[in-house]
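anyone seen this seq b4? input:
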Amino acid sequence: MRQPYKKSSLVIPEAASREDLVTILDELAEQGAVSAEVVNAKLQSLSAKTHQKALKASKVDELEVDEKNTKVLSPEQKEKLLLSLEKRFLNNKHRHQGLKWVQVETRLQEASPEKLWSLNEMERTGGEPDVVEFKKKTGQLKFEDRSAESPVGRRNCVYDHASEVDFVKNYPDEEYNGNAVDMAKAMGIKILDEKEYKAAQKVDKLDVNSSSWINTPVNFKEDGFANYGTHGDYGIGQNNSYNAHPTWAFRGSLWI
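predicted toks r here
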């Protein structure tokens, strides 16, 4: 009789995608292979191949980097982003009392292309970012996702990479939208922690009909759970980190 894998014995490469894992596990199931050693060998082989492809793809002439850098907004994209941010800023003065739009615009005009790209990713995925903090000494601005409900473009995600492995194992036929930790990293933003989320709820009424993953301490995550925030009596709660739901996403922040 085939025995289940021992979760603690597996070494999952960061490069492994959900499709890769499903394919490997299906192949091993057909072969009747169940040892962690065999699974690890398969996964490490996959990781090595993916790494080689990445190295090959990265060998681009330095003169072409700026032209191919996907983390640079076009003039049209930048203009559209600034218009959206200005409108939101002026309509939500309670979030940034005493701050004027001209100060924000000046800072954004001087920001690096990568920071603007990250801010645009927050906007593009439905986070509706807005200024919530300003440092007078440095001129730095803190943007946070302030959409009424969890950002629609990031929903149905599990918490982190390890949670994806658990999701595939428990729900092999169900679809999900990646994981919050890697998604935030790719966007160049940070997931709100408990303190930031509670502060945001005091200013705006958020997640009445949804929930948002929030940054979870490693020692707590090791138990298989992750923190999430929602509106109402529950506030901050915990759930299985591999839980993916159509109304669950995550909220992030970005300093510029």
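The longest strand covers residues 129-134. Residues 79-256 form one domain. kinda curious what u guys think
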